[in-house]
Write a structure and sequence with these properties.
The complex is a heterodimer of chains A (234) and B (590). Chain A has 234 residues and is an alpha+beta fold. Helix content of chain A is 30%, strand content 13%. Chain A has 8 helices and 7 strands; from the N terminus they run ββαβββββααααααα. In chain A, the strands form 2 sheets. A 5-stranded mixed β-sheet of chain A has the order 2-1-5-3-4, with helices on one face. A two-stranded antiparallel sheet of chain A has the order 6-7. With 590 residues, chain B is α/β, with parallel strands linked by helices. In chain B, helix 2 crosses helix 3 and helix 5 crosses helix 15. The relative contact order of chain B is 0.17. Chain B starts with 5 loop residues before the first strand and ends in an 18-residue tail after the last strand. The chains are: A alpha+beta (234), B alpha/beta (590). Chains A and B meet through helix 3 of A and helix 3, helix 4, helix 10, helix 13 and helix 15 of B.
Chain lengths: 234, 590
């Protein structure tokens, strides 16, 4: 038997949240091994159990949740890696809509704040803008972010100031454009980060690195932005 | 207000926020139109994000190339069922649109000289069937992710209005057939709203989730196709479902054709590179239908691998490990996680897996939905557009080439956007909403409020998926297909008895799975019935009892209507390109 303890809350009928126990026979997994596979089977028995999911292979970022105390994606977390009962909670610090589903808007809002689009006002060439392989490689480890929110919602600085501190995911995006050789708004982007909260609330707690299911390193990106700011002021 | 339902008004309603919907929305928003994008998931969770290998365009950065060679390959790949006007349009537009994406920030992998990296993909040739071409523009093996995120970012900048996590249930259509918007439900609150629009664009993606083993995301349930069927219009060529040769065996996760483009190959239990017997020249880079049939044949004839001899192996470990690590990092990661195999050291177990819907909502090359009216087979339906995998232009015909789907969504996303801008100039005002159409949509929503004993949505969904796999797979026969038609008809008959246990208003995912079940059953019936009728083998539709292509009888598009339990009609293939000579049907060898 696989045992679970899952956070439940439906504002339509519950006064307050509670933890519900579930069990699943291992045989029902029929060779499938991930936490999401188990959740889908549980939902077949109890259709009220609610969570987001889509690609089921770790690229869409829908099924982020708190798994035994750590943030991760259910679809790429093997059941065998988890101590039982498997405790599932919504992403910490976010308003809960229902069960494991949180309102991601505070997270998306900070993403939008960093103007996550390429800015280049130079005349448009008739071919691609050339970029050296070396410059392109600087984007590796940055552009792959899937906006699952695991990092920002694992960050105490983001918990305290979700409206003022951008959080690791948005800062990773910010650096993705700061370092892109094709982007021409480096100074303007840095100007907007010179603020006591937006960037500098990062206290290098490093939870973000631990939490990222794609093995990206937001803390390093934040560190590099600080270095860019420093280099600019000196 | 109508039936107490809130009404929102826009110039254009885009349903679906994958690459197609976002490319169209961008065109419209940049033209200062008021555009609403409705998506049942947050835009970057759309299935475009999972596209790996790349996007075809004859840039010629790596091998000599031109759009006409690309057109030839696409027509041949389609097994001569593709419409050559649309194919010419797409292949001509490709280079400009890839470059536009690059300008929009897509982080394409680069060559030494700073230009976009291109890799070899299946079915690509130089000089009309000559040497292998390298035509697929790639961002490592995460091209779909890179394109989808960049398009979303561009839309944020253009201030497109997003309705994230809203589910569209039905089109609203005037009595004289003008599409007026759609009924949608706010998933978080459960409340319906009417989005009234002067033009409506469907970009809801494919339906390969109707199969049990599928490379597709769980959201690919054919919603737009079913909405069109419910509105009385047809879907086209639904019998053509692409089985990708290399899904992870037993699980279905996609292992990109880029693995073979970078030099990987398939082997059977004897370690033999069996593709040489099926496609002596192109080998592992033959068209997907050819490779999938070869794998299925190897397994049927007892040369499969593993204890159950139920898969073949995809070998990469003979390649320089840096190629795997740098050009195929996502594949390596997926293989380690799901198959427990690091392709740097050992081969990946693979099996043909339902992947792509070549058929869909019939459109012309401007993205206008077309339907037979009186004696005209292709009358544009006013105010209604469809693009991407939910549509059938048809550029893919009976078999899509790898790298042509990301191209399709961008090319026709832009084309539809441009046409809608023109349409709105001639149709600047909202027409009066049709109350009967609203009433039908409300009745549809209320259907799931029935409580009491009944079958569950999950049970029926599982049953349908198993049926599609058993009765409508890689190889098909009349007997099996006819049985499949009866099986799916049986499910449709039972649908009325399905009950939703969870009646909560708040983020009720079970409720939307119920709507998705209805949609999938509509599509499953269209697929099965269209397949049972087509007595020839063409592209992905492979009949053991009719092994040859029959151009005299069957070089025509299937149209399926859902009235009277399913009705079929046919219309000719558009064999005349826009400016060049037609490629006449010839025997297709790789």
């Amino acid at each position: 038997m696989i045992r679970f303890s899952i956070y439940r809350f439906d504002p339509d009928k519950d006064n307050k949240p509670y933890m519900q126990d579930y069990e699943l026979d291992e045989a029902e997994m029929a060779g499938r091994q991930m936490l999401l596979d188990a959740l889908l089977l549980l939902k077949e028995k109890d259709e009220s159990l609610s969570f987001r999911r889509s690609c089921r292979e770790g690229v869409c970022g829908s099924d982020s949740m708190n798994i035994n105390g750590s943030n991760g994606l259910a679809c790429i977390t093997p059941i065998s890696s988890l101590k039982q009962p498997i405790k599932l909670n919504p992403l910490p610090g976010m308003p809960v809509i229902r069960d494991l589903i949180v309102d991601m808007e505070p997270f998306y809002k900070q993403y939008r704040t960093v103007k996550p689009w390429l800015i280049n006002d130079e005349p448009v060439p008739e071919i691609e803008r050339l970029q050296s392989d070396e410059d392109r490689q600087k984007l590796d480890g940055l552009y792959e972010c899937i906006l699952c929110g695991c990092c920002s919602t694992a960050c105490p600085s983001f918990w305290w100031n979700p409206d003022k501190y951008l959080g690791p995911a948005a800062l990773l995006q910010s650096y993705r454009f700061l370092i892109d050789s094709r982007d021409k708004a480096t100074n303007e982007r840095l100007d907007e980060l010179e603020d006591p909260f937006r960037l500098f609330r990062c206290h290098s707690i490093m939870n973000c690195v631990e939490a990222c299911p794609r093995d990206l390193n937001p803390a390093e990106a934040i560190h590099k932005i600080r270095k860019m700011l420093l280099a600019r002021s000196s | 207000m109508s039936n107490g339902i809130e009404i929102r008004r826009f110039d254009c309603l885009v349903i679906g926020a994958g690459g197609a919907g976002l490319r169209a929305a961008l065109q419209l928003a940049q033209a200062d139109l008021h555009v609403a994008v409705v998506s049942k998931v947050f835009p970057t969770r759309s299935h475009t994000v999972a596209a790996q290998g790349g996007m075809n365009a004859a840039l010629g950065n790596v091998s000599p190339d031109n759009w006409h060679w690309h057109m030839y390959d696409t027509v041949k790949g389609s097994d001569f069922l593709g419409d050559q006007d649309a194919i010419e349009y797409m292949c001509r537009a490709a280079s400009r649109l890839v470059i536009e994406l690059e300008h929009a920030g897509v982080p394409f992998t680069r060559l030494e000289n700073g230009r976009i990296y291109q890799r070899a993909f299946g079915g690509q040739s130089q000089n009309y069937g000559g040497d292998q071409a390298a035509r697929t523009c790639a961002a490592a093996d995460r091209t779909g992710h890179a394109i989808l995120h960049s398009l979303y970012q561009q839309n944020l900048q253009a201030r497109t209005h997003f309705f994230d996590e809203y589910f569209a249930t039905d089109l609203l259509v005037s009595e004289d057939g003008v599409t007026q918007g759609a009924m949608v439900i706010d998933i978080a609150s459960g409340e319906p709203i009417i989005i009234e629009a002067k033009s409506t664009l469907l970009a809801t993606g494919g339906s390969a989730r109707i199969y049990r083993n599928s490379t597709n995301a769980m959201i690919n349930t054919g919603d737009g196709m079913a909405m069109v069927l419910r509105a009385g219009m047809p879907v086209q060529d639904m019998e053509f479902v692409q089985f990708h040769p290399t899904g992870i065996a037993g699980l279905g996760m996609l292992i990109s054709e880029a693995t073979r483009g970078e030099g990987g190959y398939l082997i059977n239990k004897d370690g033999e590179r069996f593709m040489k017997r099926y496609a002596p020249k192109a080998m592992d880079l033959a068209s997907r239908d050819v490779v999938s049939r070869a794998i299925a044949t190897e397994i049927r004839e007892g040369r499969g691998c593993g204890e159950k001899a139920d898969h073949v192996l995809l070998q990469l470990h003979h390649l320089d490990s840096d190629i795997v690590k740098n050009r195929l990092p996502g594949i390596r990661d997926m293989s380690i996680r799901f198959a427990g195999v690091d392709p740097v050291d050992a081969p990946i177990p693979v099996f043909p897996t339902a992947h792509y819907t070549m058929g869909g909502i019939p459109t012309n090359r401007m993205g206008q939905v077309v339907s037979p009216v009186l004696n005209a087979p292709e009358e544009a339906q006013p105010g209604l557009y469809a693009i991407g995998e939910c549509a059938c232009v048809s550029v893919h015909g009976a078999n899509r080439l790898g790298g042509n789907s990301l191209l399709d969504i961008v090319v026709f996303g832009k084309a539809a956007g441009d046409h809608i801008i023109e349409f709105l100039q001639d149709n600047p005002i909202h027409t009066t909403l049709n109350q009967a159409s609203i009433d039908r949509a409300v009745e549809h929503i209320n259907r799931w409020e029935k409580t009491g004993e009944g079958e569950s949505v999950a049970e029926m969904t599982n049953e349908m998926r198993a049926m599609m796999e058993e009765f409508c797979g890689v190889f098909r026969t009349q007997e099996v297909l006819d049985e499949g038609v009866e099986k799916i008809r049986g499910l449709l008959g039972r649908l009325n008895g399905v009950r939703l246990g969870d009646q909560s208003k708040v983020f009720n995912t079970a409720r939307f799975e119920a709507f998705e079940l209805e949609n999938q059953l509509e599509v499953a019936m269209a697929t099965m019935l269209s397949a049972a009728a087509r007595q020839e083998s063409r592209g992905a539709h492979s009949r053991l009892d009719f092994p040859e292509r029959d151009d005299r009888e069957w070089m025509k598009h299937t149209l399926y209507f859902n009235r009277d339990g399913g009705v079929l009609d046919y219309k000719p293939v558009r064999t005349q390109p826009l400016s060049v000579d037609s490629f006449p049907p010839v025997k297709r060898v790789y």
